[in-house]
Amino acid sequence: MFESEKSKMIKDHLIGRGIRDARVLKAMSSVPREKFVRERDKLISYADTPLSIGWGQTISQPYIVAYMLEVLDIEKENRVLEIGTGSGYEAAILSRLAKEVVTVEIVEELYKDGKRKLENLGYENIEVVSGDGYRGYKKKAPYDRIILSAAPTDIPENLVDQLAAKGKLIAPVGGIFQELILLEKDEFGKISKKRLLPVRFVPMVRE
């Protein structure tokens, strides 16, 4: 039922806006976004817009998800840390790009729902963790790639510490005004920072 809407989203809102990474496009084509939205929003699953998933959180706009994943340049053997599981949509896409995905969610209801949903849909290389994203998840560190799906006012030092050498971290950062930031760590641990574009994400929640 949703295949034509998904194809239109890929063609018009991703390729049409400059997304070129074939692996990202394939991964996003393989994940049924309608399974990750609320029942009342299923008919607009593939609109290029964020949608509420309850508890003050959203499922991100497909274009922004694709843009962030393209910038991260995830490799097949990578371990990825996602902060903010939400509905599980982005984790599902990440699982098609990386060897292993660890995703952290602070809202207990979303943690339980996201974990159940991802398991029921057969995503096996994802570990869903209940916890404070500001702390990251040290148990599985270091991570080759880190992606934040909510905006802190500053990038948490714990996450920078848990980033592997030659790793990349992407995050929306700010309060009322936010911008997408890319951090890269070289083989000596030195960090470089690049400002990418203005964005609007829900604030990152702390314990």
Automatic annotation (TrEMBL):
Task: Provide this UniProt record's keywords sorted from A to Z.
Answer: Cytoplasm, Methyltransferase, Plasmid, S-adenosyl-L-methionine, Transferase
Quick one: where is this thing mainly located? cytoplasm
Q: Which residues form the active site?
A: 60
Task: Supply the Gene3D superfamilies for this chain.
Answer: Vaccinia Virus protein VP39 (3.40.50.150)
Q: Which SUPFAM superfamilies match?
A: S-adenosyl-L-methionine-dependent methyltransferases
A single BP term in Gene Ontology: methylation
Catalytic activity reads: [protein]-L-isoaspartate + S-adenosyl-L-methionine = [protein]-L-isoaspartate alpha-methyl ester + S-adenosyl-L-homocysteine
Task: Give the E.C. number(s).
Answer: 2.1.1.77
User: GO molecular function terms here?
Assistant: protein-L-isoaspartate (D-aspartate) O-methyltransferase activity
Supply the InterPro entries for this chain: PCMT, SAM-dependent_MTases_sf
List the subcellular locations.
Cytoplasm
The UniProt entry, under Pfam families, shows: PCMT
GO (cellular component) term, any one: cytoplasm
Does the keyword field hold Membrane? no
Q: What does this protein do?
A: Catalyzes the methyl esterification of L-isoaspartyl residues in peptides and proteins that result from spontaneous decomposition of normal L-aspartyl and L-asparaginyl residues. It plays a role in the repair and/or degradation of damaged proteins.
The family this protein is said to belong to = Belongs to the methyltransferase superfamily. L-isoaspartyl/D-aspartyl protein methyltransferase family.
Q: Matching NCBIfam families, A to Z?
A: pimt, PRK00312.1
Q: What is the protein's name according to its record?
A: Protein-L-isoaspartate O-methyltransferase
Tell me what organism the protein belongs to.
Ilyobacter polytropus (strain ATCC 51220 / DSM 2926 / LMG 16218 / CuHBu1)
Q: What gene is it encoded by?
A: pcm
